[in-house]
């Protein structure tokens, strides 16, 4: 008797071991994906796409397509579809960009493309937070849904897209995709994109991006001998403007420091370059003519506008105060993204009951034991702007709580337990949104 119980225990142990070795390991998939170098300037998109493609094929009910967005460059986009039973309903689209920013290996504790997991479960890699975590979490969430509920039938279709080039503006990525026939046929009703880590117990969610402007202000003036005092030199005019912009920047920053507004809710105007002077010779040693006041001078600013700002009012301020013609100043703005949608509305997604997608999303996060913090404007930009400009409600959300914000930073990492909790959150979100039959605007 004792012997047969021992045998039975051995057999059970053997099968459990076998099961464990064949059970897909999401953390392992995450590490494998992080090891594919998709950092700029030379992202390996084909390998990343084929890895995700294989992973998707191991999950029930998923259909896959690879689109080539550019006829001459390797810019593949992987589109994964979980068909819903009512294709006439607007679909849900989950997005993750394939690329990442570069990393400086010498500044990292662990090599940035080895995806080393430390004893306490932290996985160090470029892209761990931005945004390869969500790429794997989406798929593992769908795998879990069918594992736990084999008979689950989504009503709405769910798509996942893996796009190239987000980190360099998305012109050969999301911008091309939204123009494609494939995208139009998808009838996207709600878009979920990347967000950012939260340092506390609540998940952050973003309902808008700030829009970047590249602003150059330029002054011209009478040139003159370095020894001469006269009014309206180009340098004097520019320096006056630099002071005015600095004052404006200080006032905006004061609102943040006083806790009245978040960083992303004010206009930032950060100086990024100053250009003036006459180069002394062509030797390239950077020496300038010192006894001559130049006839031209300019300054460059990175300006970011929250969607609540009236862009025309800011342009007027620039024309009146920052670069007034009365001081021989001119300016040039390159708007790096849209500020209003096709109907002229600010690029904002409602986070109240007027947006049924929001209500279902929020309840789903809570049903999985998650808590959302007050919705925010993202300080930077993401591919979500390409959706909002089409009037498609879009939220930025990466379920990373109790995690330092390390996107684009050295030693970017994500802890395995946080990553796995994020999969549970997406299981709830995907299940709820794909089962949601109610009317949407
Ligand atoms: Zn990102």
From TrEMBL:
Pfam families: M20_dimer, Peptidase_M20. The active site is at residues 99, 166. GO terms for biological process: amino acid metabolic process. GO terms for molecular function: aminoacylase activity; metal ion binding. Residues 214-321 form the Peptidase M20 dimerisation domain. It comes from the Eukaryota. One of its GO terms (cellular component) is cytoplasm. Gene3D superfamilies: 1.10.150.900, 3.30.70.360, Zn peptidases. Zn(2+) 2 binds at residues 130, 167, 408. Its cofactor is Zn(2+). Binds 2 Zn(2+) ions per subunit. Zn(2+) 1 binds at residues 97, 130, 194. Transmembrane segments: none annotated. This is Peptidase M20 dimerisation domain-containing protein. It comes from Tagetes erecta (African marigold).
